[in-house]
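Troubleshooting log. The previous structure file for this entry was overwritten by mistake, so regenerating from the original sequence record. Sequence copied from the archived sheet and checked twice against the printout by T.R.
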Amino acid sequence: CLALLFPASFVWQGVMGRTLPRDAGTAEEGTQLITPQVIEFQLWLAAAGLILIFLILPWLISAFHRVRFFDGFGIRPTSLLAIVAGILLGFGLGPLLLQAIAWSAQLLEQMGISNEALSEALVQRGEEQVAKLKQAPFWLILFAMAIMPAVCEELFFRGLLFRALRANMSPWKTILTTAVLFGTFHLISASGLTPSRLFPTTIMGIVLGWVCYRSGSVVPGILLHLIHNTMTISFAYFRDDMVEKGWIVQDQSNVPIQAIAAGLICAGLGTVILLLVKKPAPTGESQAHIDVDAM
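Regenerated output below.
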């Protein structure tokens, strides 16, 4: 399954990059207008790709091995404490991971591995993409870029894949393996290669794996992932408004210290609460056993 998902994911990113027309020429030569309909089509296409790659394809493979859907994908009831912990960790990781990405980009640039942090072309391209996305309804942006990634990626990485590996690995080996794979999948996006995302995304994968292990369900992780995505997208979408109100500086590369402090508090509370959650009996992996070689 992984042998198919990696190339399928990269091919789909390439398709995504080509479905959105690029501006051609200068203002004097004329430009190729990108209509709201085109943007909305690309967002629906992105959501469809996530469902195909992370849900339908793995489900077909698991169904062939007679794995029950809810057991295989880790969809189980969990405690209220685990839900609260997932929500708090989602609010906490938002600003912390944004700052980690900024630091990672700066470090890679200083090491000469990447000039991503100071690349004016990359910054300009990111601003252009945000401007284009603003032509679509905000609810559709959240659906395609926050809700669907949170649901589909968690059902696969902390659901099906986590349980397949857990049948043959220790908890922390399973958490680390799924986290590294999760980070690797996020190396390539429609914007191109983004090495600064590897370390922060892998850390997020570790947290999500630990939440799944402690709660015995993908539900808290989906909420965590959803809140994190929503905060990241909202920050990019409303950034100009925050600059106008004086909340952030136009060229500010770091997350405001107040946001980092709030993130640390939420993440700390979420961690403490999750430690209070009683781990479920390890019966799911045996009932939903999947041959690792099939993955």
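The longest helix spans residues 80-110. Archived copy saved in two places this time.
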